[in-house]
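Beta-galactosidase
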Amino acid sequence: MSRSPFNCGWQFREKFNAFAELGRVTIPYQDVALPHDAMIGRGRDPQLHLGAGTAYFPGGAYEYRKTFDVPEGVAGKRVVFEFEGIYRDAMIHVNGDYAGQRPYGYSRFLIDATDFVKPGRENEIHVDARNHGDGRWYTGAGIYRDVWMHVLEPVHFGIDGIRIRTPDIESARAIAEVEITVVNDSAALRTVDVRSEIADPAGQVVASGSARVTVLAGESAVTRHRLYVPSPALWNVDTPQLYTCRTELRDQDEQQLETRTTTFGIRRLQLDPKAGLRINGETVKLRGACVHHDNGILGAATVSAAEERRVRILKKAGFNAIRSAHQPISPAMLDACDRLGVLVLDEAFDVWTQDKTNFGYAFDFPEWWERDLEAMVAKDFNHPSVIMYSIGNEIPETGTPIGGVWGRKLAEKVRSLDDTRYVTNAVNGMLAVMPDVMAMMQQHSDAPQAESDSTDAPGINTLMADVGDFMNMIGSSEPVTQKTAESFGVLDIAGMNYLESRYETDRDLFPNRIILGTETFPTRIDRNWQLVLRNDHVIGDFTWTGWDYLGEVGIGRARYPDGEQPGAAFSGDYPWLTAWCGDIDITGHRRPVSYYRQIVFGLRSEPYISVQRPEHHGQTVELGPWTWSDSVSSWSWDGFEGKPITVEVYSDADEVELFVNGRSAGRQLAGPDHRFRCEFDTIYEPGTVEAVAYRDGRDSGRFSLTSAAGPVRLSAIADRPAVRADLSDAAFVDIVLVDGAGNSFAADRDVTVEVDGPGILMGLGSANPATEEGFGASTHRTFDGRALAIVRPTGPGGVRVTVTSKGCEPVELLIEVN
């Protein structure tokens, strides 16, 4: 078999009516390289109905085409195209003929084009995709993940035909079961030999085996190698050791028909309510990040280097697990999690039979759900990072008997495909009983004011003032206990969204129930993490979100009276662009909450300083449950000299003292009993602000910020000095406004990026959560003094990147492309 990238040479345009072209009205195609997001370059529409969900990007229909040659030698072989993801309602035509389709926008799928390609001639593949009113967040559009072309011999391995499991692991040896599917597309019975050899992380062959297989014409057969790996190097988050299995297919004349290399890890999973989740015998608490699929300024384009960079930054920030919210994770991110040692909860669906948008996946779910689950499991099976599957997110049906039926069907389907991992479902208790909630709200709304005031129960407006408390109050109620019993009962792990009020009560109500906080408020991590640590049956916490994302705009924004009134809408008005609730912004820069979380997790002993934006000092502010304070880690505030300012300090120490230019601004209690934080009101003056932490009265750590002074300079640093001459790679250039000592400015200005040589500027942008700027221009304004440029290689050689800004010396850097 040959498997080759199929990402070059594509053209793209918005879908056009063929009849209009007869009238000589046409839209020209544009050359593009995949992965490509057809939506990110579109103009945003401030008046778009329900536009806050998609960041005010309108939907549309798109088409792609590519011409390609098929050599004469391919005649008699099978040609299959592998699409890792097309959003959405993909229709594939080859040489004008319908070849296949896929409604779900997040599934990897195969198109058998054997009957449509013409060997020895030029061929054309055409892809239609559309999205319209079908996403609760920014979905992107088009062929946003990689495409591969497979050319298969008449007798070949199944494309997903090699599966490796390690059922028995001891210190002296581990058993690796290699399950191999051989497909015979020829017209005659064939007998072949299958050989496998396993190499350890150092590349040394440590086990091998072979088997002879006879396959009937037009059928497939499964053979298994039971191999013994001595002294196994185990995969875990601290030492992600990876083995490779090289499997070879030969005919009776010893002619090699195919060779496949499969990467896997040796690790053991265990689960019970006393020891919790164990990996290789050691209990692991999941420090989890919910992550949407978009790559910020790249939109939905799933460039492998961007996926790996996200995983690397998330792990450095203290996370050891990722939940793919709310759709199957990309193969590129799975590969990165395997290599870097990050655990994965892969999630299948956001809806089942009840839709949450006008034209969502629920219309297709009854017909396609099994094939989409099969695609997810086939993609994940050999990845040691994947430890559990989620069959849904906040599914309304989970509070109904029919929802229990569907949950059981999905869970058992997953188990039939993969019994080596656990099954969960991210259940929101309030949504599960929404009809009851609506009735209660109506009752409170209809009740006379005097009568409402005379009762002990709070009014509905009071309840809704804190969404988190309201959701927990409903979630811990008896109706939720009863109505979700069956939906939780079909799972290995009870996934709970915003239901920490159930963690300890369910220990007594359901002694065998194992709980995972599949989605939680970032503002409650200190309390939630204590619940995780003191309850064996609670195995972790996944914050919403680890990485900021496009769409669901402004759910984490701070609301001020001069901008919008308290009690304003759930989402922000145009030009809000991102949710602004991530620990890490869309450029990969860690926000203050990220360092706070690291302290709560016990991974950082030094204190951390964040400063509330002084222009809002003294104003009334409304902070929602996804809203961290409106602060930034900077002591550069030109124009606010001599004015009041609030300084936040995060620390797990007993006390913290704040110094401004060496003078004490006070000493306050911190640590777990004070939610790991304290605030100091002081007067801003340029210089240095320093926090000193004390444990048992002794200095236990310091952290300081220094004001930027003097002329503004440009700093531009690439994440790596060299990248591969491959469309899956890219260089990420962090651009920061600094002074001569490297201290960053908070003030902003336009920066321009030029790229010369074998590379292109794929995207330029900032983390500004409310901006009208796009990401496709060569000039962009910084936000809090920062921007990010992404350079994609187009061939080998040296790429020169020049960054300029008015009044600054230009900065040049050279990126080698090998």
